[in-house]
Amino acid sequence: MARHLQQRDLGLILTAARTWINDCLVADRALFSAGELWTPALVEEVRAAFVDHPDHSDDRFMVKLARQMAAASKAAKQLTAECLWGLFIFPLEHAGLDEAFADWGSLVMVGRRAA
């Protein structure tokens, strides 16, 4: 696997991604708080809020996502934040990504749990 991309060392990003995979996807633990978020019931709640309630407006992704997740539980919002973290961890140079990443903080975040 390439660890360097256009003169960038991706070692720290790959380590963080490995932590996310091991803690969240394998061990079902939360990344940003204590406890379990990656349960079938919460995954289904997030899926239902997002997939079953499409927002076809012209608003930005984070604005639409906030509307879709408004009625969801705090735990479902935290799980959504962890899913987005997994999506946004890799540095891509796409138009609008910086804007979306800046808006990301508007989701419920309770601080990274101590290692």
Features:
115 residues, mainly alpha, two-stranded antiparallel sheet, disordered C terminus, 5 helices
How would you describe this protein?
With 115 residues, the chain is mainly α. 51% of the residues lie in helices and 3% in strands. The chain is built from five helices and two strands; from the N terminus they run E-E-H-H-H-H-H. The chain has helices at 11-26, 40-51, 61-69, 74-88, 97-103, and strands at residues 4-5, 8-9. Strands 1-2 form a two-stranded antiparallel sheet. Strand 1 (4-5) and strand 2 (8-9) form a beta hairpin. The longest helix is centred in the N-terminal third of the chain and has 16 residues, at 11-26. The model is unreliable at 104-115 (pLDDT under 50).
Helices and strands in order:
Layout: E1 4-5, E2 8-9, H1 11-26, H2 40-51, H3 61-69, H4 74-88, H5 97-103
Antiparallel strand pairs: 1-2
Helix pairs in contact: 2-4
Counting DSSP H or I runs of 4 or more residues, the number of helices is 5
> What proportion of the residues form beta strands (DSSP E)?
under 5%
Mean pLDDT: 76
Radius of gyration: 15 Å
The gross shape turns out to be flat
Could you give a short account of the major beta sheet?
2 strands, antiparallel
- Give the total of beta strands: 2
- N-C termini distance: 26 Å
Decide which structural class fits the backbone: mainly alpha
Q: Which sequence of SSEs, written as H and E, runs from N to C?
A: EEHHHHH
Low-confidence stretches: 104-115
Strand order of the largest sheet: 1-2
Share of helical residues: 40-55%
